Amino acid sequence: MTGNDPRLQEALDGERDPATLPEGLREAYARLTAAADLLREPPTVSVADRVMAEVRRTAPVAVVSPAGVARRVARWFTRPRAVTLRLRPAWTLAVAAALAAVVLVPLREGVTPGAEEGVAQFVGHFPGARSVEVVGSFNDWRRGALALRDDDNDGIWHGAVVVPAGQHEYMFVVDGERWVADPLAGRYVDDGFGAGRQNALLVVRP
Amino acid sequence: MTKPAPGGSPLVVSDALSDALVVGRVLDGDGEAFGIIIRRYEPGLLRFATRMLGSTDAAADAVAESLVRAYRHLAQCRDPERLKSWLYRITGNRCRSHIGRRHTSDVSLDDAPPVADPADTWAALERGEQVALVERALAALPAEKREAFVLKHVEGMSYEEMAEVTGARIPTLKMRVHRARAALLVALKELV
Which B residues 51-110 touch A at CB under 8 Å? Predict the structure, then answer.
């Protein structure tokens, strides 16, 4: 059958000169390219005004400035609140001890819960990574808003952030380019952009 | 080139700006810069959606929704240099969702035969009939094959780009394109 002839497919994929096709295949080639040309007609409508009206109506994409983050972190340390801590039970005791050291500071200061906020603690095991950060719906997926730290170079990166109560999607970004869903998140949701990729899900209770 | 923005302040539009730079400007709070993205990709997205949905009105809705969604979630675009693939992916998803919701009995107004205008030339009428013939043949394909054919032959994408847009593997996409071509050849015997 003409349509299944591999020579025709190669020509249409740009892997073969169509002039080398036998006459019957050349005709099929011409028919399909003519069809594609007809479908390439430019659209007669535009949605630009409609979209820009929505863009102007919607608040601009939020930018979390370093100063803003610093203010929030400072507020977290100075205001009494309790800590909602995400611990990874599957990890070793050594890891747990390290995490305990991280959370002792706020606990010693007798923090109590904020009305509609919680503290999310992120921990990831990325040996050899040069940088790890967390981006998510709570920081408008803004790069640079929450960098994790690995002060003792053991490959365990950690950090905390004050987030509103509720569900938040997030991802780790390793070395500035590799997006990794937290393997220990336990809950995931489709990222909504197809390709079957998922974001980790964080649930923070006030 | 400088063109006045509807809001009053001038909007500098430059094709020299890379997608990543434009995305950076939008993320830094310059919402008007999103107009550059629209100008760059709207024609292709509308053509793609029109071929997927078989209706100009439905395509306009799908593309408008997709662009607004892209704006709101722009920071989630993991590789702004591949903005084009990301926008096509969002639009493709929106089209699939639209197709899934649509009742099979729905008939688009666009499917109605064109009304002849005395000013139309014979060549224009003939071309219109040919476009309608190809559109009908395309609409008869399953959505996945239709999408593969349109991305390859109408939008001119490589199989690598198509894989980024659809999430499907390249051999799968080649198979879809090959089968779409074979089916269209049968349906387009009348096409000169």
Answer: 51, 56, 59-60, 63-64, 67-68, 71-76, 78, 86, 89-90, 92-93
CB contact under 8 A, B71 and A54: yes
- Shared-domain flag, residues B35 and B69: yes
User: What does each C-alpha distance from B15 to A103, B33, B123 come to in angstroms?
Assistant: 50, 12, 35
Q: Identify the CATH number of the domain in which residue B50 sits.
A: 1.10.1740.10
Query: Lowest-confidence range among A107-121, A166-180, B53-67, B109-123?
Result: B109-123
Cα(B58)–Cα(A122) distance, integer angstroms: 43
Quote the pTM value.
0.62
Domain spanning A64-204, CATH architecture? Sandwich (2.60)
ipTM: 0.78
Is A61 close to B78, i.e. CB distance below 8 A? no
Nearest to B42 among A32, A33, A47 (CB): A47
Question: Does the pLDDT at position A113 exceed 80?
Answer: no
**Structure tokens of B11?**
């909007």
Q: Are A148 and A112 in contact (CB under 8 A)?
A: no
